[in-house]
């Protein structure tokens, strides 16, 4: 469904991505794990055409996406849904209007059909009865769900999630992870999830790609990453400190 071959990206003379390779299979949920600043969200921007690689190629649904112009990208994006880190809801619109936004912009469906779809998707994410509320009246977890309902309203084949559990408490984070898992099960989409939330990744991932300083250094199941001998992977997966704490205390006594 999505293939990235030998992609490099440099911005302002800074190497962001270094010869990355990734193949995402149709219908799977692939989680991109990595520390803050490792380049995870940049990979999503490549997949949506917001930035172009300096070299290498990106194929989406068999289309060589890195060579498309903006008009061609817009056609390809209709097969994709995006759940943003901070939800990106329109404050002046109700929940119903937010979810219906793409349908009204990109389809010629009758209003009755749009309202049916909106209700169906809100029910799917557990937000029935919230149609007339505004974003300011919603909790952080509810906003994430509205964002997901909007993303799936046009029945995309691919859904991209940017830090879907960011800013949520452990209970709400688990709720969102379950909603993501249920959505994939119902819609059979190909899902790419960027996160540093290990518990969420364990709940939803078919496979995990670990990004370290702009390079995928390990791709496999969650179990395989947890058992990895690579010190860089182990440090992240097991929450090991980046410095020797005992030596720091010893130095402070000098």
Automatic annotation (TrEMBL):
One of its GO terms (molecular function) is ATP binding. InterPro entries: AAA+_ATPase, ABC_transporter-like_ATP-bd, ABC_transporter-like_CS, P-loop_NTPase. Keywords: ATP-binding, Hydrolase, Nucleotide-binding, Transport. Its EC number is 3.6.3.-. Residues 2-238 form the ABC transporter domain. Pfam families: ABC_tran. The keyword Transcription does not apply. The keyword Lyase does not apply. This is ABC superfamily ATP binding cassette transporter, ABC protein. It comes from Dialister micraerophilus DSM 19965. The gene is ttg2A.
């Amino acid at each position: 469904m999505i293939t990235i071959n030998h992609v490099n990206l440099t911005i302002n003379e800074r190497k962001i991505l270094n010869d990355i390779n990734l193949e995402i299979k149709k219908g799977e949920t692939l989680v991109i794990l990595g520390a803050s600043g490792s380049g995870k969200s940049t990979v999503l921007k490549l997949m949506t055409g917001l930035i172009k690689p300096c070299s290498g190629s990106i194929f989406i649904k068999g289309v060589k996406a890195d060579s498309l112009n903006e008009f061609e990208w817009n056609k390809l994006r209709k097969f994709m849904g995006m759940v943003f880190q901070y939800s990106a809801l329109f404050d002046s619109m109700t929940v119903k209007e937010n979810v219906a936004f793409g349908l009204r912009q990109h389809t010629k469906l009758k209003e009755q059909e749009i309202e049916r779809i909106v209700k169906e998707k809100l029910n799917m994410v557990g937000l029935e009865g919230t149609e007339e509320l505004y974003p300011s009246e919603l909790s952080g977890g509810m906003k994430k769900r509205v964002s997901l309902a909007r993303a799936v309203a046009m029945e995309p084949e691919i859904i991209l999630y940017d830090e879907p559990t960011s800013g949520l408490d452990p209970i709400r984070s688990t709720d969102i992870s379950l909603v993501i898992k249920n959505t994939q099960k119902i819609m059979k989409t190909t899902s790419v999830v960027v996160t540093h939330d290990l518990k969420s990744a364990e709940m939803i991932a078919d496979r995990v790609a670990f990004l370290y300083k702009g390079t995928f250094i390990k791709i496999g199941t969650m179990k395989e990453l947890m058992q990895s001998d690579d010190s860089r992977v182990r440090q992240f997966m097991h929450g090991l400190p980046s410095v020797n704490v005992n030596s720091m205390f010893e130095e402070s006594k000098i």
